[in-house]
Amino acid sequence: MDNQVDQTSKIIKTIKIDIDKCNGCRACEVICSAFHAMPKYSSNNPARSRIRVIREPLRDVYVPVLAGEYTVSECAGRDKYTIDGKQYEECAFCRASCPSREEFKEPDSGLPLKCDMCEGEDEPLCVKWCLVDALTIEERQEKVEDLEQSLALEDLEIGLESLADKFGMDKIMDVLVRMNEKE
Ligand code: SF4
Ligand code: SF4
Fold first, then answer.
1. Which one, of 100, 30, 50, lies nearest residue 71 by Cα?
2. Do residues 30 and 40 both lie within one domain?
3. In tens digits, what is the pLDDT along the chain, a chain of 183 residues?
4. 113 CB under 6 A from ligand 1?
5. What is the pLDDT of residue 146?
6. Which residues, including other chains, have CB under 8 Å from residue 30's CB and lie 6 or more apart?
7. 135 touches ligand 1 (CB under 6 Å)
């Protein structure tokens, strides 16, 4: 990819996960937790890792999951996955740090953990340490306006969700209808 980025574009980096290549070695968990230890590399506790590998050695199923956003409330709809005939528990592959489970929480403080793409490093360390290329980095250029627009929409959705949590959706709709009538 051309590394020249004009003023109107930004590089977006994504970690691509190929579960067919993952062998469950957990090197990604080890390096992630060591990188995020305080001080850096002073300890290694996979519970502190921002990547978690779901392992089913008897079935040769290994699924790395990257820590995503923190959520204040657990979701009402859940997913169930069946892989090679085995059904996995609800939330098994969820990326969120959520009040209903222990995953992706700092073990001592309980603070939420989120992948920060190894801020300050040239390349995400889990990608670097994955010797079988189950984790690879993909880069794409995105127009800044598109990006800003999608971020603004995301902010709006988050704002509406928290208002709905606080006051209830009926009340929000009521206010919106009244505002519309005034215009
Ligand atoms: S380092 Fe790569 S192969 Fe090993 S568990 Fe992580 S993703 Fe899988
Ligand atoms: S990119 Fe860095 S912070 Fe994110 S999971 Fe990989 S090692 Fe951890």
1. 100
2. yes
3. 445 556 688 889 999 999 999 999 999 999 999 999 999 999 999 999 999 999 999 888 999 999 999 999 888 888 888 888 888 888 989 999 999 889 999 988 999 999 999 999 999 999 999 999 999 999 998 887 765 666 666 656 656 666 666 667 776 666 666 666 655
4. no
5. 65
6. 44, 46, 49, 129
7. yes
- d(Cα 101, Cα 115) in Å, to the nearest integer? 18
70 shares a domain with 158: no
CA 41 – ligand 2 centroid, Å:
14
Does 82 share its domain with 164?
Answer: no
The answer, yes or no, to whether any atom of ligand 1 lies below 6 A from the CB of 36, is: no
Domain that holds residue 67: 11-141
Residue bearing the CA closest to ligand 2, atom 8:
32
| Together in a domain, 80 and 147 | no
Please tell me the distance between residue 172's alpha carbon and the centre of ligand 1 in angstroms: 45
Which ligand 1 atom is nearest residue 132's CA?
Answer: 3
118 shares its domain with 150:
no
Please give the distance, rounded to the nearest whole angstrom, from the Cα atom of residue 6 to the centre of ligand 1.
Answer: 35
> Does any domain span residue 5?
no
- Strand 135-143 versus strand 61-66 pairing type: unpaired
* pLDDT for the residue numbered 1: 46
Cβ–ligand 2 contact at 124 (below 6 Å): yes
Ligand sitting nearest the alpha carbon of 134: 1
Number of domains observed in the structure of the chain: 2
Q: DSSP label at 112?
A: B
The Cα 113–Cα 103 span in angstroms is: 9
Residue 85: per-residue pLDDT:
85
**Domain holding 72: CATH number?**
3.30.70
